[in-house]
UniProtKB/TrEMBL annotation:
Keywords in alphabetical order: FAD, Flavoprotein, Monooxygenase, NADP, Oxidoreductase
Listed name of the protein: Cyclohexanone monooxygenase
Organism for this UniProt entry: Williamsia limnetica
Cofactor section: FAD
Pfam family name, one: Pyr_redox_3
């Protein structure tokens, strides 16, 4: 592969831009914050529980005692299952709402779906399954197929209970098991429960006045209705040529689906509250020569390099192996430091304030480059202006697309800016009101995202979630996460969490899941080997972990509060949940070592085990 060159970025007036960023943020901040969204329940339950991809077969309710239940069969669930197998724990079931493995890649099959992150880092268990992604940014079907590959390779289909949604979890201290109820009337008891639902499990809807009145067709991008649109995830939406379609939402999902809707529909109207920042896709097929050159461990080195760009920093002269929009700011900054005589510029980074200052400059320059890119692609200057993102890099998820911006040069596409009204004003039985005028539509597509940083009981949708003494997990974590090592909680025996809670964060979420799965599998195996039916962290161990988290915390509240609202910063709510949870800022790789050292003692310090 070619060495990765820095991008050419323009000069910027940072104070003026900062002022503009704050004005744009203030325009969009809403007093109702996270409450502006509706849950996919009642009239809208099909937006979550309905499966447009696989018919749900009737089955008898299951009554069973299982050693370990993994909630969720996406990449987290699959990685965890593999790690349990490796540890010698084989009596487990994966309970999954979808009709197959894949999680987000099972559900999200909207046209244009494609990874927005380096596939060589993101797709899990590559070396273990002997698979190499076909291109840098895999399409959605390749991701789904890889989930199926993992399921087949490790014989996990026998462990799966598909089309089943866990409704409640209650700890039963009489038998030291979790009682699990599901949407299929099952009565399952599990010794251990591992939550692998992932952050994007549950679609949410905008709470737009009148949303229930619309009489036309509607669906959410996460449950795409190809019966209605025709085509498939590669496009070719051939059933909507006579339809007027509206899309609400211009985040990662909306951006990818919109070019295909525009090609298929009679007319497409895009309702945009905040423009995304859009990097060049610059995708490429996997080079066989590069594959032939790979040595064992190549992937770990690549993931580490990605981590350095996103959550730490390069060392002098370190190449950027990822070479895309995620790494642009760090790459450009490192290039300037590398250009100093004998790398002398790197010395300045010893001062964290100087590091932040240099990074901020590159951030503003990179975002200005992307705004200029909009101008170069979009013909109409007024439309181009509306499509320019005025906020800092990483305030929102970066997106990568070459078709989205040219879509606004099409005669059958209209962009409607709804930033002044902080979102779409009103939906009626026939369409959407804009500036007091009703626009009629046949179909409204909601690209409105997921319950990611809304309240935990909305995201988990497990009610009740009751631990020892009947305590609700939502109460226990009501004022912030409290865990041991980010995976266990006091009062919740034999329960294991994954994801963005109180663990380490890195650039590839699947690597984070691997770290957590290693730890969880070890604890469960140890409990089994010691004949324990009960394992729970002490209150003291939990307190100490919370103190460790606090001692290593990084104050990025200025950055996040200055960001435009979105799920990353909990819609700008002052004490909202961060997308990253409450991480161990001591470092992802440092946490790996810390957890390994804890396991190496074999003492299970901080855990109570009972027979
Ligand atoms: P999202 O990023 O949360 O975007 C939701 C969109 O809906 C935003 O544009 C939001 O506008 C808009 N919206 C919400 N309420 C509105 C209202 N009342 N009026 C008008 N617009 C409204 O959701 P997403 O696009 O589904 O992406 C979610 C996450 O899933 C991504 O960030 C990414 O992590 C993951 N994802 C990844 C991929 C990939 O890797 N290829 C693809 C899809 C999704 P505001 O921005 O103004 O709030």
């Amino acid at each position: 592969m070619q060495p990765c060159a820095p991008t050419q970025t323009p000069d910027v007036d940072i104070p003026a831009l900062r002022e503009k960023y704050l004005l744009e943020r203030d325009k969009r901040i809403r007093a109702d914050g996270q409450q502006q969204y509706l849950e996919a329940e009642d009239d809208f339950s099909e937006f979550y529980e309905g499966d447009p991809h696989t018919p749900v077969e009737p089955r008898q309710p299951i009554t069973d005692d299982i050693e370990v239940v993994i909630l969720g069969g996406g990449f987290c669930g699959l990685i965890t299952a593999h790690r349990l197998q490796q540890a010698g724990v084989t009596d487990f079931k994966i309970i999954e709402l979808g009709g197959d493995f894949g999680g987000v890649w099972y559900w999200n099959r909207y046209p244009g779906i494609q990874i927005d992150s380096d596939a060589y880092c993101y797709l899990p268990l590559l070396e273990e399954t002997g698979y190499i992604p076909k291109e840098k940014f895999s399409k959605g079907d390749e991701c789904f197929e890889h989930a199926q590959r993992i399921g087949t390779h490790f014989g996990l289909y026998d462990n799966a209970i598909f089309h089943t949604l866990i409704r409640s979890l209650k700890w039963d201290g009489e038998v030291n098991r979790w009682q699990i109820s599901t949407n299929r009337g099952d009565e399952i008891r599990a010794r251990h429960v591992i939550l692998c639902q992932g952050p994007y499990n549950r679609p949410k809807l905008p709470g737009i006045p009148g949303i229930r009145d619309f009489k036309g067709h509607t669906f959410h991008t996460a449950r795409w209705d190809y019966e209605y649109t025709g085509g498939d995830l590669h496009g070719g939406l051939d059933k909507i040529a006579d339809k007027k379609i509206a899309v609400i939402g211009t985040g990662s999902s909306g951006i990818q689906a919109i070019p295909h809707l525009a090609k298929g529909a009679k007319h497409l109207t895009v309702f945009q509250r905040t423009p995304s920042y859009i990097f060049e896709r610059a995708n490429y097929p996997t080079d066989p020569e590069w594959v032939a050159s790979l040595e064992p461990g190549w992937r770990a080195a690549r993931q580490r390099n990605f981590h350095n760009a996103a959550f730490s920093f390069y060392s002098p002269g370190e190449p950027d192996l990822i070479c895309d929009g995620w790494t642009e700011v760090s790459r450009n900054m490192a290039a300037k430091l590398n250009a100093t005589e004998n790398f002398s510029g790197w010395a300045a980074l010893a001062d964290p304030a100087e590091f932040m200052k240099l990074k901020e400059i590159e951030d503003y320059r990179a975002m200005e480059r992307l705004r200029q890119r909009v101008e170069q692609i979009v013909d109409d200057p007024a439309t181009a202006e509306l499509l320019k993102p005025y906020y800092r890099n990483m305030c929102k998820r970066p997106v990568f697309n070459d078709e989205y911006l040219p879509t606004f040069n099409r005669p059958n596409v209209t962009l409607v800016d709804v930033s002044e009204t902080k979102g779409v004003e009103r939906i009626t039985d026939k369409g959407i009101i804009v500036d007091g005028v009703e626009h009629e539509f046949d179909c409204i597509v909601f690209a409105s995202g997921f319950e990611i940083t809304t309240a935990l009981d909305r995201q988990f949708d497990i009610k009740p979630f009751a631990g020892r003494e009947g305590t609700s997990l939502y109460d226990h974590w009501g004022k912030g996460f409290r865990t041991l090592h980010g995976v266990m909680a006091h009062g919740f025996p034999n329960h294991f969490a994954t994801g963005f809670v109180q663990g380490g964060v890195t650039a590839s979420t699947t690597l984070m899941f691997e770290q957590q799965a290693d730890h969880i599998a070890y604890i469960i195996k140890q409990a089994q080997d010691r004949g324990a039916t009960y394992v729970e962290p002490t209150a003291q161990a939990e307190d100490e972990w919370v103190a460790t988290i606090r001692a290593n915390s990084v104050d990025n509240s200025t950055f996040t509060s200055e960001c435009t609202p979105g799920y990353y910063n909990s819609e700008g709510e002052p004490n909202g949940r961060s997308f990253l949870g409450d991480p161990f800022w001591g470092g992802f790789y440092e946490l790996t070592e810390l957890l390994q050292a804890w396991r190496d003692t074999g003492e299970l310090e901080g855990l109570v085990l009972e027979k």
